[in-house]
UniProtKB/TrEMBL annotation:
<dbReference type="InterPro" id="IPR001577">
    <property type="entry name" value="Peptidase_M8"/>
</dbReference>
<keyword id="KW-0645">Protease</keyword>
<dbReference type="GO" id="GO:0003944">
    <property type="term" value="F:N-acetylglucosamine-1-phosphodiester alpha-N-acetylglucosaminidase activity"/>
</dbReference>
<dbReference type="GO" id="GO:0016020">
    <property type="term" value="C:membrane"/>
</dbReference>
<feature type="disulfide bond">
    <location>
        <begin position="522"/>
        <end position="531"/>
    </location>
</feature>
<dbReference type="GO" id="GO:0004222">
    <property type="term" value="F:metalloendopeptidase activity"/>
</dbReference>
<dbReference type="GO" id="GO:0006508">
    <property type="term" value="P:proteolysis"/>
</dbReference>
<dbReference type="InterPro" id="IPR000742">
    <property type="entry name" value="EGF"/>
</dbReference>
<dbReference type="Pfam" id="PF01457">
    <property type="entry name" value="Peptidase_M8"/>
</dbReference>
<feature type="binding site">
    <location>
        <position position="301"/>
    </location>
    <ligand>
        <name>Zn(2+)</name>
    </ligand>
</feature>
<feature type="binding site">
    <location>
        <position position="239"/>
    </location>
    <ligand>
        <name>Zn(2+)</name>
    </ligand>
</feature>
<keyword id="KW-0245">EGF-like domain</keyword>
<keyword id="KW-0325">Glycoprotein</keyword>
<feature type="active site">
    <location>
        <position position="236"/>
    </location>
</feature>
<comment type="similarity">
    <text>Belongs to the peptidase M8 family.</text>
</comment>
<keyword id="KW-0479">Metal-binding</keyword>
<dbReference type="GO" id="GO:0005737">
    <property type="term" value="C:cytoplasm"/>
</dbReference>
Length: 535
């Protein structure tokens, strides 16, 4: 464990944004904090609960759309081929236009909520994150769409977008929705345009959402359920913009290969160098793609077992993050330049070594477990049990439940925490404690509770302050045992992991910002302590 900590210290001391590589340097436990001042990264887990979880079907959509294209191509016009785009020489922030005409058949209030709250949270993030060579011409959609809808979602393209095009845009997103009993929350893909950009960068796409589950999230009163829809939107739109076999084939260099285990991996040189240092595995051949989940998920996402709550793993979770892994794929295309200040911190698997990256569960890893007892979730956002999911290769991890999430638990759970001086709400996190032992229990007493807490940063160092029975206490070291009078004790968590997760910020910034030094840095268009205010 000492060797792992030394690597952890050395790796995170210096960052050169210009080369996008992390260099070894100092000897301080909390240099990980410094890394993400300019080059952020994070980790979280899938929620099992009454909330319907999102499982991406992008790979299935691609198969179906290939069939659709073959049928429609017979009606292509020569004008489509002759239309040319020219691109400016310099990179500027991408201009994304959203079309909501396919939502008009749905209730006005839902349509307005999507237009004002959901889509801007995702769109504004991309406009801050990505730079492209802007187009000089309007984006004109394929003339096939005069007779056919676009893609698997059967999106109706406005005639004006075919004849005259969409002005002052570098990408057009068509927002559409269903309201049905399928198990799919949302999916996204591309739409064809007249001509191509010289770089083959995608220029149009759609995002389709199932309003049945979206309305359930809004009506639940659970802010994190709504935030999770923002994560889902970001995930699916990323498929339209970059993370898709359909786009990988147009990269200037082939970044897909198979490693010695036979796994499909992405192996762009800068991505590979970053991954080797991140995982502490110099023999890594590439970053593996998902091998489970069937034809809807496998091959089109990062491997869940290895990258946890990275935004582009194959199913949803609280506090998903856009880490450097996905951003380096954007960069590998040469279509995009990245605003690295908008990257988000990933912790899952950091420094775990080559054994962690093999084909079996590394039970020695802090990410995995083998226990019948409860524990705090790996991001300390709530209580969890040791369980696997459909994408974790039979590996068990601390999998949390929405009804025991510190921010929004059910009433009975909140009262249990109150009995040991705990609390639920925006600024609460999970700690281990033996304070339950002061009461009589039938069977084994609980060993975790949520307490109001905050991370205090001082340069490279961080401490945790937390409140029990109205009194403030402090964590200065990992696993420090803090006495709570004569009632018992609270055990301090891993301070670095605790303070770098999105859940270190109140309400995890509601999916509308990045947690930095315990405070929300809101995406464009949002403000407030939790990014709750739309500007």
């Amino acid at each position: 464990m000492q060797g792992k900590q030394l690597f952890f210290i050395k790796f995170l001391t210096a960052l050169c944004i210009s080369t996008l590589l992390i260099l070894y340097a100092q000897n301080t436990q909390y240099n990980y904090i410094n890394l993400f001042r300019k080059y952020l990264n994070n980790k979280n887990i899938e929620i099992t609960s009454k909330r319907h979880a999102h499982k991406c079907i992008h790979s299935k959509v691609l198969v179906e759309e290939e069939k659709i294209r073959k049928i429609q191509e017979a009606s292509s016009h020569e004008d489509d081929i002759n239309y040319k785009y020219t691109e400016q020489s310099s990179f500027q922030n991408i201009r994304i236009k959203f079309d909501y005409s396919n939502l008009e058949k749905h209730h006005f209030s839902i349509q307005r909520y999507i237009e004002l709250n959901l889509i801007p949270a995702a769109g504004n993030y991309f406009e801050e994150l990505l730079r492209v060579r802007r187009l000089n011409e309007p984006i004109r959609l394929s003339s096939r769409y005069n007779n056919y809808p676009c893609g698997y979602a059967k999106v109706n393209i406005p005639k004006d977008h075919i004849n005259n095009g969409v002005q002052n845009a570098d990408f057009v997103f068509y927002i559409t929705a269903s309201d049905d009993e399928s198990n799919t929350l949302a999916y996204a893909s591309t739409c064809d345009v007249q001509g191509t950009a010289s770089t083959k960068r995608p220029l149009a796409g759609y995002f389709n959402m199932n309003l049945k589950y979206f309305k359930q999230a809004i009506n639940s009163g659970d802010k994190m359920a709504v935030a999770n829809w923002i994560y889902t939107t970001l995930h699916e739109m990323t498929h339209s913009l970059i993370f898709s076999d359909y786009h990988f084939s147009n990269f200037p260099n082939n970044i897909k290969k198979r490693d010695r285990y036979g796994r499909v991996v992405l192996a762009d040189p800068q991505l590979l160098e970053y991954a080797r240092k991140y995982f502490n595995c110099p023999t890594l051949e590439g970053v593996p793609l998902e091998d489970e989940g069937g034809n809807g998920t496998a091959g089109g996402h990062w491997e869940r077992r290895l990258l946890g709550n990275e935004m582009m793993t194959g199913s949803d979770m609280y506090d998903s993050v856009f880490s450097n892994f996905t951003l380096l794929v954007f960069q590998a295309s040469t279509w995009y330049q990245i605003n690295w200040n908008k990257a988000q911190p990933l912790i899952w698997g950091y420094g775990e070594g080559c054994n962690f990256l093999g084909t079996n569960c590394d039970i020695q890893s802090q990410e995995f477990c083998n226990s019948v007892n409860k524990n705090c979730s790996y991001d300390y956002a709530g209580l969890a049990s040791c369980a696997q999911d459909s994408l974790s290769n039979n590996c068990k991890y601390w999998k949390s439940y929405s009804n025991t999430h510190c921010n929004y638990p059910d009433q009975g759970q909140a009262k249990q925490w109150q009995s040991v001086g705990g609390k639920s709400g925006s600024n609460t996190r999970c700690f281990k404690t033996d304070l339950y032992n002061q009461w009589k229990w039938n069977g084994t007493p609980p060993a975790q509770a949520c307490y109001e807490s905050k991370c205090i940063f001082n340069g490279n160092q961080a401490i945790i302050k937390f409140i029990v029975y109205g009194n403030e206490y402090q964590c200065n070291q990992n696993n420090q045992v803090v006495r709570i009078g004569n009632k018992g004790s609270v055990t301090c968590p891993d301070i670095t992991r605790f303070c770098l997760h999105m859940s270190a910020c109140p309400d995890s910034c509601l999916g509308r910002g990045t947690c930095f030094n315990g405070k929300c840095v809101c995406h464009k268009g949002f403000s407030g302590p939790t990014c709750e205010t739309r500007e």
